[in-house]
Amino acid sequence: MDAGPLLEMHGVHKRFGATLALRGVDLQLQPGQVLALVGENGAGKSTLMNVLSGVYAPDEGSMRLGGQPYRPRGPLDARQAGIAMIHQELSLAPHLSVVDNVLLGAEPRCGPVLQRKEASNRTREALSRVGLPGVEPSRRVDSLSPAQRQLVELARAVATGFRVLVLDEPTSSLGREDVRRLFQLIAELRAQGIGVVYISHFLEEVMEISDRFVVLRDGQSVGEGVTRDAQIPQIVRMMVGREVQDLYPRSARSPGDPVLTIDRLAGRTLPIEATLTLHRGEVVGIAGLIGAGRTELLRSVFRLDAVRSGSVNVAGAAKSPRSPGGMWRAGVGMVSEDRKSEGLMLTRSIAHNCTLSRLRGLGPGGLVRPSLENAAAARWAGALAVRCRSVSQPVNALSGGNQQKIAVARLLHHDADVLLLDEPTRGIDVGSKSQIYALIDQLASGRLGTGGGTRARAILLVSSYLPELLGVCDRIAVMTRGRLGPARPASDWTEHTLMLAATGQEVA
Amino acid sequence: MNGWGFSVRQVVSLAARVGALALVFALFALLVPEGRFVDVRNIENILVQSAVVSAAAIGATLVIIAAGIDLSVGSVVAMTVVVIARILRAAPHDPSALWALLAVLGGVGAGALVGLINGALITSLRIVPFIVTLGTLQIVRGLGKGLAGNAAISAPETWINPMLDSVRQQPWRWIQLPPGVWLVLVLALLTALMLRYTVLGRHIFAIGSNEKTARLCGVSVWRTRLIVYTLAGLFAGVAGVLQFSYIGLGDPTTAVGLELAVIAAVVIGGGSLMGGEGTISGTIIGALIIGVLGAGGVLMGWPKWIQEVMTGGIIVAAVAIDQVRQRATLR
């Protein structure tokens, strides 16, 4: 019997407010096929899979599952239709036992009473199918290793049955041996006629496990093919192939003395090793995939995260600061990647958010004069063209782009010499982006007067958006699986070579 | 916004609370016959009755703004009265004014020490404040009883006793209100100024509003928290001094459940248990609303349960109205 495609998506669109996250995605999955979904960070892979698993409803386009029209009304609906999804971040309840997790929401019962024997048997069966026969169903999930937890999650899918399995970055927390076992399991599922969608940044894995691939870029499917016939460089070209716009002003910059020296820095888990020297008057970018340890590097440098070994020295500071407060005092400031949960106090005013790191000097002694504070905040809100009625407005009344400008304004008020910027343009509109790029250029070239005259600043920029890195930075280093590579002049890099380096390929 | 740093939102919020207090007051003024409610003596009585709760609630406001909670308040008050009575009894003859001052400092110091211990446990062991202070609530109550030999101890008369007495018969009646009430008002004013116009005040709001942001911005979260709980203990100690003045005994079983009235005052005053919200003025008004309800109920001859039901209703209503207002002002 000719089965036809198991899953079809056609012309899928998804809009969030003004941004078009998906604009025309087509893909087909046959039974017994492993389809790799590849693309840069932010290309729309997660959104697409959330549409498939019923988290979001598509605005346009159609989906068919097993030949029938498929419009899930929610995640439960999708699960019952036979779509199983294993997320990048595991979604197990750590305090519950394996059996409770595997059968959560599908417990065998007699009226309100859980049938413990039956539950335990079903769990055992599911565990042995995913290659975890040794694990007791009564064990608590938080006593298992990350790899075992992932298999428990898979067992949960197996126990309820599925036709399509979606794996989102399944190997990012696994060791080599566990990856091998996972691939064996995928091969078995394939032999049983299950369709597998495999999302991964690691292209060598894609080459090894997948039958076909689809490339997503800027919310569109831009290429596909048979994996066996493709080459990694060819796939990378499809992933990054876009025009670099002239969004990035670049004045004459003259790198001066070193201001921040990172020497063999290692965090509790990430980074594993990072060495870098940042000079006054330059912008250094750090590229890498999500999970490579870029954010952890910045956090360890700023002492927000624990440091296991290595050192960070700031020019002008007698000894290396050991706390974020010490870093600020030494003239180092940081913008967090997570604006809402860490970067800002959302319910407090613009002024309070701007001035928190440096309240001294806004009044005599330990006092704060609101008039001085407001004047300082108004000055930087004005310089960054923040759209607000007054600086006493709470930050959560502003748009995302304007909120981000407040997070950046804090460093300007502080008059920081070294700026650590973690994804400073994530999730903000193009207008705000270009203003932040212009600001970075002004700071690096010493054209922005703060406090006492103009001087060039040093900027360390983490970004997942390659055109931004290439456009803004003087030098770029790539972080791969916790290790920071050497910083090379930005002109030596292309999106292609950056992507190759980030995915662990040798750069010629 | 003006030079003093008040936003429209804050002014409206304070005005709404003053209005609510006036409304409750007007209600009893109408209900209670023969104008006995608007009588000067009654108003003085309300202020005296509210003084103990208010003093402790000033400290609790700081704790709640910093996204914490302090359940040990009632026990600290009890321990303070016992410490004061013990020190007064230790005087060789009749205790002098200086000796009484020593007793007061000892009592307040004991309160601050408990606060410091609360803060140290919370920051060093990383146990949530609810659990730590639930523990110290029991421990401190027990220690107070032990220190008192498990019975109320009497103490000789000193200047502490008339702190909350009416001054209308005194030669210094020009001060209008009992000195204990003035003490609370001055402390409230100082604390409000501290919250609004000092670096420490900003840091307290910051760790309550978003602790991660505070850390990112270099605020020493543990030090700020230690100061907040120490101040809360100190204010509970002051409340203990006033309580001693009121009951005149070292009674270790006094002020059971006071922490709930204190938290109620802060919440009615606009404090959010999620942190980052709260004002001293609001808290004092909250304490007064509870006080007016109590005094009015007594004059009406209502049984105590009616007062309890009404206080509970006002807590829920105040928070519900705040929620609606906040949603209305955002977007």
Rg of chain B, alpha carbons: 20 Å
Measured by residues with Cβ under 8 Å of the partner chain's Cβ, the largest interface is: A-B, 42 and 29 residues
- From the N-terminal CA to the C-terminal CA of chain A, the straight-line distance is 49 Å
Strand % of chain A is 15-25%
- Rounded to the nearest angstrom, the radius of gyration of chain A is 25 Å
- CATH-level-4 superfamily name of the largest domain in chain A: P-loop containing nucleotide triphosphate hydrolases
Overall residue-averaged pLDDT value of chain A: 87
The amount of beta strand of chain B, in percent, is under 5%
**Helix-strand category of chain B:** mainly alpha
Helix content of chain A: 25-40%
Mean pLDDT of chain B: 92
What overall geometry of chain A do the principal axes of the alpha carbons give? globular
Number of domains of chain A: 4
Number of helices, where a helix is a run of at least 4 consecutive DSSP H or I residues of chain B: 12
Order of helices and strands of chain B: HHHHHEHHHHEHHH
Number of strands of chain B: 2
Query: What is the CATH level 1 assignment of the largest domain in chain A?
Result: Alpha Beta
How would you describe the overall organization of this protein?
- The complex is a heterodimer of chains A (508) and B (331).
- By secondary structure, chain A is of the alpha/beta class.
- Chain A folds into four domains: 149 residues, Rossmann fold; 74 residues, no CATH class; 170 residues, P-loop containing nucleotide triphosphate hydrolases (Rossmann fold); 69 residues, no CATH class.
- Helix content of chain A is 33%, strand content 23%.
- Chain A contains 17 helices and 22 strands.
- The model of chain A has no long low-confidence stretch (mean pLDDT 87).
- Chain B is an all-alpha fold.
- Chain B has a domain of 226 residues.
- In chain B, 71% of the residues lie in helices and 1% in strands.
- Chain B has a two-stranded antiparallel ribbon with strand order 1-2.
- The mean pLDDT of chain B is 92.
- The interface between A and B is large, with 42 and 29 residues.
